[in-house]
Amino acid sequence: MDVLFLSRLQFAAATMFHFLFVPLTLGLSVLVAIMETKYARTGDETYLKMTKFWGKLFLINFAVGVVTGITLEFQFGTNWSRYSAYVGDIFGSLLAIEATAAFFLESTLIGVWVFGWKKLSRKAHATVMWLVAGAGNLSAIWILTANGWMQQPVGYTIRNGRAELTDFGAVVLNKFSVLQFFHVIPAAFILSAFFVMGISAYHLLKKQHVEFATRSFKIGLVFGLVSSVFVVLEGDLHARHVTETQPAKLAAMESLWETTTQAPIHLIALPDEENEKNSIQIGSIPGVLSFLGHHDFNAEIKGLKEFPKDERPPVLLTFISFRGMVALGTYFVLVMIIGVWRRNQLLESPAYLKLMLYSIPLPYLAIQMGWLVAEVGRQPWIVYGVMKTTDAVSPIATSQVATTLVGFILIYGLLGAVGFFLMFKNARKGPEPV
């Protein structure tokens, strides 16, 4: 194991762990804002119970997410200093804007929300929660803009041996970033909806806090249904753009080695990293990959053999992650439709309630798979077509990275255990009397 591999592993571990908390922060803030708005309008104390209960879980999740996010950004200087030196003029400015214009605003507003219950009117307090949700999602915009630039670099020029910003507007309005935002944020909303519905299902199965749990479940159901359908529709646009900008990623997503028209997908497959002839493929459906990439069943899709070996992404991980993400996305739509059908008979639907309870981890898994497709499928480029990951790593000792990797795993493991234990404990306890 060399410095490059260990640095990749450390960044992947830190990023994936951090992103266990970010989606719930983004979605649950909106759900809490909706619940508090209903309380502000009606004065119904059930909505107040909902606001305080889900708000507490939001705060626990937010606290752990903040800690893991701060250490993550420092890795650009410690493990990826050559990358920072080469593209820091662009990437660094986006991270700076995210911190000063969004994260600090969100943190300040959360303080106002926590300590303002007896100092603000109901409507003013609900407004603060909407501002918290807006600031959180604004933060996501800047992070996804930075990542979108790495996926499709625009608005820059190479000068004095480094990438320098020439068109800030082009970076902000980068099509890849925009499509990525409208895919990641609704996915975070789906995760939050399943979180709320699953915990509500637990209390309904126990036949406790029935009114609270029923209302929470129904709000999560509407929120999740709209988000899940939107993700599927937007995913189609995203796939077409990936076909245009990152054709090697598309080929790896379906383990397509030979350039072909009517490119198929396979119902069951186990790809080989080197050659399609050694892959296991069962149940091919001709033309579906062509349609996915071009909306034309007869369109030509470039195979992996069209690209140099050192510019092909890892096939197996990209392939499995893509298929898992799509399968879970389809599942989310189906269970939401079932939920709409059974929404007025929840107590008489224990099987469905158990399904939703046990489904809480699935959106987490789907989001992680989505990021694996995005990031592993981009390899070997850290900035697509501009800089390879091998050229971005810091010139440091292997032992340094190995030591910090172990440290990250231990500390993050402890933080994760504490965070999830507190959420589990409070979720199981249920809402407190107003």
Enumerate the spans where pLDDT stays under 50 for 5 or more consecutive residues.
none
Ends apart, CA distance between termini: 56 Å
Count of beta strands: 8
CA radius of gyration? 23 Å
The largest sheet is:
2 strands, antiparallel
The global form is globular
**How confident is the prediction overall: mean pLDDT?**
85
Order of helices and strands: HHHHHEEHHHHEEEHEHHHEEH
Number of domains: 1
Query: How much helix is in the residues?
Result: over 70%
Total of helices: 14
- Secondary-structure-based class equals mainly alpha
Which strand order does the major sheet show? 1-2
Strand proportion? 5-15%
Q: What key phrases describe this protein's structure?
A:
single chain, 434 residues, two-stranded antiparallel sheet, two-stranded antiparallel ribbon
Brief summary of the model shown:
The chain is mainly alpha-helical.
Polypeptide structure, described:
This protein has one domain (3-259, 302-428). The protein has 14 helices and 8 strands. The radius of gyration is 23 Å and the shape is globular. The model has no long low-confidence stretch (mean pLDDT 85). The longest helix is centred in the middle third of the chain and has 36 residues, at 210-245. Strand 1 and strand 2 form a beta hairpin. The chain starts with a helix and ends in a 5-residue tail after the last helix. It has 434 residues and is mainly alpha-helical.
